[in-house]
Amino acid sequence: MTAGKTLTPAGRRRTLGRVVGFLVLCFGAFLFVFPFYYMVVGALQAEPDSGISGAFPSPGDLSLTNFQSINERVPLFRALFNSVVYTGGVILGTLIIGVLAGYALSQLRWRGRSLVLNLVLLTLIIPFQLLMIPMYVLIVRGWGLGDSYLGMILPFLVNSTAVFIFRQFFMQLPEDMLDAARIDGAGELRILARIVLPLSRPAILTAALITFIGPWNEFLWPFLVTKKAELQPLAVALANYISAVAASTANPFGAILSGAVVLALPPVVLFIIFQRYFVESETSASLKE
Amino acid sequence: MTGQEIPAGESSEAVIQAAITAGNAPCLVWNVAPAAVPQFQRAGGLVPLNSFDGGAKYADQRVGDRVDQYVSSDGDLYQLPWKSNPVMIIYNKELFQEAGLDPENPKLATYDEFLSTSETINSELDIAPIWPSADQTFYQAWFDYYPTFIAATGGDQLVENGKAQFDSETGLEVGEFWRSMYEDGLIPQESSPVDAFAEEESAMSIVGPWAVAVYTDLDWGVVPVPTPDGKAPQDIYTFSDAKNVSIFSACKNQKTAFDYMKFATSEGSDRRLLEMTGQMPLREDLEGRYADFFDENPLYAKFAEQASRTVEVPNVENSVQMWENFRGAYSESVIFGKEPVDKAFSTSAKEVEELVKGQGR
Amino acid sequence: MTGAARYIGYLFILPYLIFLGLFLAFPLGFAVWMSFYDYFFAAPSAQVERPFLGLGNYSELLLKDDTFHTALGNILVFIAVNVPLTVVLALVLAAALNAKLPGQAFFRTSYYLPYVTASVAVVAVWGYLFFSDGLVNLVLGGLAPHPSWLVNEFWAMIVIAMLVTWKQLGYYVLLYLAALQNVPRQLYEAADVDGAGTLGKFWNVTVPGLRPVTLLVVILSTIIGANLFTEPYLLTNGGGPVDQTLSPILYMYQVGIEQADAGYAAAIGVTMSVIVLGIAAAQRFVLERE
């Protein structure tokens, strides 16, 4: 509190509210981070320890052996590259096709719009495991896309949640601004590209981040589709490592945890870099004129 | 000839099934679980080995009488027995010593002895004497009930000629034995999140020879699984935990695959398998053929001796459903005591008999 | 609207429709067709018999299959715990994370971490923590349930619900965060002028402003919850003792992949889809009434 400023009752309420909010956040963050912390700590230990000392080991007990084994047996760079291509392909597909679809579902009028909206929901309702083998037959036997990036990407090409996000976001854009552009003779594509998209940064980022996780962590489908180890993404390579190591070592727990830490690192780093762009700064809100 | 690693585990079944369906299965898969063979065969994915010149004879020469355990119900042989991991009991000598038990000649032959030894370990050391997994996955029974059942009955399979064998007097006795271990609190009702034997949270484990390469930090001995009245070791049979090799119908060069298969299961190749992995080639007279290896590796020698007396899972239709059904009954009655063992087993026996007839689900 | 403009909508939605047609409609149609037969997958050249069963699979499933009924009960318990918890926590957290507070980056990342982490590790860690000799029971001492959490008929599914809520929260927080950007600042400013405190603003501006997203979150979490597969699969490997953590989709996977009974598995999948569709429609009807 700066000197000379008295606090109104509302101001006091606001400050109290903020302090409480902050404390709640701290407690919540602790609950959230603790299992993750436990995971990292477990990965850094050569032997699993279920007691208290396992949760708070002295620095001397930590070791990198689990990570060293991974480095020896898993082609990390190759697998990382494959993951980037796979995930990147899905994000690209979602951003292009999903944005078009989101725009069509929110701003454009055409018959069958609500039917398609329900279809989007349907993609989330139908469990993937039900479709897996017929899809495999279609993609691998029908189109010969086994052992290819395209074969991995296609079933996941457009993330339905992203379509919802785009639709939701586009629906809340000011109509008059867009109508003004239409009156000026701008085509819908131009409106989308020049006006809507620049305003949609939080939506695009959110959609990208949500879309990212699926293919990044996906194991079963790429595993099915690829037989060549050089094409397998990181999640598959690590899963192979875990199941191979689990059968031949006395500390499968450490192997699982260290594999997961390696896999989680890129998304976490990306998130830390981009997380401030989720929240729109005050200035851009003034575009609503 | 190109080779590709395929990880073990449930997902490998999904991959093989998908590959059969898409028509792009590899020529040979060296990780075929006998329990999965009926499914692959029903899908038309496998090539009968007896359709090759000298195929049947090759298998006969390899494993002798036991080849019958691997023949399918239509009389054809769709898998070549490759390697086994005969299941035995290993015990931690140090822990046994600590508990005041004899580490060189432990009393683990009869059920009474096994129970009493277990109780001593539990009361002296406050750990589980042995800690089999409590999971319900269909293959878990292969590592607790099934080996002891095979041993107690002198070599019966779970189902024979369409008739369930586990609800017999001996089968129930085996069930009651495990039940008393759980009832007395000797075995936890949850699977251990870590390797219990490695972390010395259990004094014994029920394993195959793969243990030799894994538990290198511990001093342990090997004995056969217990039987109700203590059969002589040379009369004890156990579960084979075999992995076999099959030729898949999608293969374009089946004759070549067959020739390669013979090469890779020759005496020399089997020796390499033994030396590199310690897994027992599933063939006759291991101890004689590879005597020098076993002289140098006495721990393996015990498993090799046991390897000539193994029994396989029944090669029947709906074999996975059968094991799931049994495991469910075992879990409810033996592990959790929610139902009496005889009632659970007899209900399961009826359902299992339906399943292997190809009816029911 | 001009004639050409009317077709723009179709043009824009076309790529997505193609995607849906190929990767949803076709496999789904095939799966539905399978469910009416004693169907199993076979090699391309194989001659196999797959007798037509009509509604045979469905009648067996709905009337006689105790395992399926147990799994259904389990998933209802799961949804009852998971959905309300998710909506409330995600909303509150997103609002808190939207504000300018110190350590923002840290907080936002901490809620995102579980969502990003591969399930296999999350499940391993939680399994370890909730094990009968694990940290949670160590801390609880005498309060620990007997039998321990994951083999306890009452607690097992609830532990899984907590695990999945924890893990998925980041996803819903992201959804709410994105939507929060659209709540007009003027409304907050007006509330300030009226003398509203933080709680007042939250209740009277934020919550109503997020209503459409809340509906989406309810529907999404229900749908995703009903399709629960990975965590029961990894945690108890088979549904746990007496099937208390068996989820319907895990059951479908066991039947379809482990038992290679594709027709019956398809019937399970189709049945679940219909049930979930019904629930989602009901939710929309109830919550959109305005």
Order of helices and strands of chain A: HHHHHHHHHHHHHHH
Low-confidence stretches of chain A: 281-289
CATH class of the largest domain in chain B: Alpha Beta
Please give the alpha-carbon distance between the first and last residues of chain A.
35 Å
Average predicted confidence as pLDDT of chain B? 91
Quickly give the structural class of chain B.
alpha+beta
Compute the average pLDDT of chain A: 81
Give the strand order, joined by hyphens, for the main sheet of chain B.
1-10-2-11
Question: Radius of gyration of chain A from the CA trace?
Answer: 24 Å
Biggest interface and residues each: A-C, 101 and 106 residues
The global form of chain A is: flat
The major sheet of chain B is characterized as:
4 strands, antiparallel
Helix content of chain B: 40-55%
* CATH C-level class of chain A: Mainly Alpha
Q: What is the β-strand count of chain A?
A: 0
Sheet with most strands of chain A:
none
Distance between the termini of chain B: 40 Å
CATH fold name of chain A: MetI-like fold
